[in-house]
Amino acid sequence: MQFIGITAKATALAALLAVATLVPANAGPPAPRDAGIVLASAAGIQPPSDDQVVELADRSMRIFMQSVREGSMRALWNHVSLRLREKFSVAQLDEAFKSFYSLTITGDPLAGKSPIFSTDPAIDANSDLVVEGYYTTSPSRVSFHLVYAMEGRAWKLVGINVNATPIAAPGANNRSTTADAGHQRAS
Predict the structure, then answer these.
(1) Lowest CB count within 10 Å: 37, 51, 102, 125, which one?
(2) Among residues 107, 79, 31, which one has the least CA distance to residue 181?
C-alpha cells in the first residue's frame, strides 16, 4: 500500500459531531448513560461469532477503502445503517473523510489481509457491537474503530473511525490522517 502526502491530522468531523449533538432548546437534560463495555446488555443482544465479526469488519473496511479510491463515500453510505444515512448525507461523509481523498493509494492495500483486533469485540451499554483493530499494511498502518447496531436481523454500521499512520523509525515524528463518522443513540 502506498500513502503519499500524509501531512496533517484530520479534524473534519468535529463540526459534524457538533451538529449531530444539537438538541431543541426545550429538551430536558440528557439522560445519563454508561459508555462502558459490558458482555451482555439489558436487551440480551449477544455478540456475533468471531468469524462473523471478522467478516463485518473486513467488509466495512474494504467498502471504506473502495470509497476512498473512488473519491466518494457513496458506497460507504449505501453500506451503513439507515440511522446513519438519516443523520449524514454522502456529502457530509465526503467532508468528514476528505483528508483521505488526497492520499495516493496504489493497488488494493487490504488485498490478502485480514483485520487484526486490538481488543475483543464486545457489546457496549447501548447494545452496540464495538470492534477495534488494524491491518498490517505498509508504509502506513490502517487502524479502525467500528460500531455496529442490530438493525432488523443484521448488524449495520453506525459509527466508523479510520486512521492511517505512517510506520517510521522509533522516535520519528509520525503524522497521521484520521477521520470518523460517529453516532448518537436516542434516549
Answers:
(1) 51
(2) 79
| 148 found inside a domain | yes
pLDDT in tens, 46-65: 789 999 999 999 999 999 99
All three cell numbers of 167: 510506520
pLDDT of the residue at 5 = 34
CATH code assigned at 88: 3.10.450
Nearest residue to 146 via CA among 134, 154, 157, 137: 157
Contact 67, 123 (CB under 8 A): no
pLDDT value at position 181? 58
Grid cell of 10 as nine digits:
484530520
**How many domains, the chain?**
1
Write out the residue range of the structural domain in which residue 152 sits. Answer: 45-181
Q: Give the H/E segment covering residue 84.
A: helix 82-87
What does the alpha-carbon distance between residue 93 and residue 123 come to, in Å, rounded to a whole number? 25
pLDDT at 182: 57
Nearest alpha carbon to residue 79 among 151, 164, 179, 162: 151
**H or E stretch covering 19:** helix 13-20
